[in-house]
Amino acid sequence: MSTDLVVSDLVAGYGDAQVLHGVSFTVREGEVCAILGPNGAGKTTLLRALSGMVKARGTITLGGAALTGRPPDAVARLGVAHVPEGRGTFMPLTVEENLRLGAYVRRGPSVEEDLERVHQYFPVLKKRLKQAAGSLSGGEQQMLALGRALMLRPRLLLLDEPSLGLAPLVTRELFRIVRTINEEERTTVVVVEQNAHLALGIAQQAHVLETGRIVLSGTAAQIQADEQVAQSYLGYRV
């Protein structure tokens, strides 16, 4: 069964403040979709709406199952893992405890098997299992947040600014791993990222948000070659 993500006429916000104004797009199963745009465009709100963290109107379906109106735990049970901006790790808990928390709503294969799977992607975490998450470097904490999301065995992975505060070398390695996860496990990925070069480098499609509306959509190559996008988000002229 296809696990396409279909978003139609999505409206979302906080209280009386509407942030998203009729956002619509589709991400086919196994694709990476990059969401670009300036600060305040509504990118984080979009991911929060997809994962049930903010109230939304419109239609969100994953593989035909409706996500709209469901609480975050119910959305997670349908296979949606959200790595928020700022990582969201539980600092006093150990690395292992954080990872095991990622599997709390999941059924199926052994958690131990999945721990080993995460260690293959992030060998450094295996060396840090008994350390408090708060003692890790920023890059290691981001790897932990992504590893915890993988413990859900997600069909859809939502990444909010994964490169935030990380050194360029660490960021490139993180995006290489995301690409590998997408290719090897056919996990659908929606990534919000200020580093447009990196995001477009692993994506098949991209959308540009401005003031809560999609103003430009296309393949990653088309968006990267667009002069307006290049000047506004990539820092060069075509």
From TrEMBL:
Pfam families reported for this sequence: ABC_tran (PF00005)
Gene3D superfamilies assigned: P-loop containing nucleotide triphosphate hydrolases
Organism superkingdom: Bacteria
MF GO annotations: ATP binding; ATP hydrolysis activity; branched-chain amino acid transmembrane transporter activity
UniProt xrefs under InterPro entries: AAA+_ATPase, ABC_transporter-like_ATP-bd, ABC_transporter-like_CS, BCAA_Transport_ATP-bd_LivF, P-loop_NTPase
Keyword set, alphabetical order: Amino-acid transport, ATP-binding, Nucleotide-binding, Transport
Keyword Transport (UniProt): yes
One GO process term, biological-process aspect: L-amino acid transport
ABC transporter domain: residues covered: 5-236
Cross-referenced CDD domains: ABC_TM1139_LivF_branched
PROSITE patterns membership: ABC_TRANSPORTER_1, ABC_TRANSPORTER_2
PANTHER family given in the database record: HIGH-AFFINITY BRANCHED-CHAIN AMINO ACID TRANSPORT ATP-BINDING PROTEIN LIVF
Family, similarity comment: Belongs to the ABC transporter superfamily.
Official protein name in the record: ABC transporter ATP-binding protein
